[in-house]
Amino acid sequence: MSIGDFVKGVVTDVLEGMLKKATTSKRRRRRKTAPSTANQTLRQIEKLLKPAKRQTSRKKTVRARSKTRRASSLS
Q: Which of 12, 21, 49, 73 lies 20 to 30 A from 6 at CA?
C-alpha cells in the first residue's frame, strides 16, 4: 500500500464524515407558547392584586424552632 493510497483513503473518509454530519443535523423548532386563557389571565391579575406576604424575621423562626425542639426532646 503506497502513501498516495493511504492519503486518498483518509481524505475520502473525512469528506464522507463531513457530508454525513451536514445532512443529519436539523434545527429544532421552538415551541410556541399557547395564548393564555381568560381563566389564566384572571388568576394572574388576582395574584398581582394580592398584597405580598411580609417576610418573617429569622430570629423569630429560629426561636420558635428551638422551643419545639426542646419540647420534643423532653418527652
A: 21
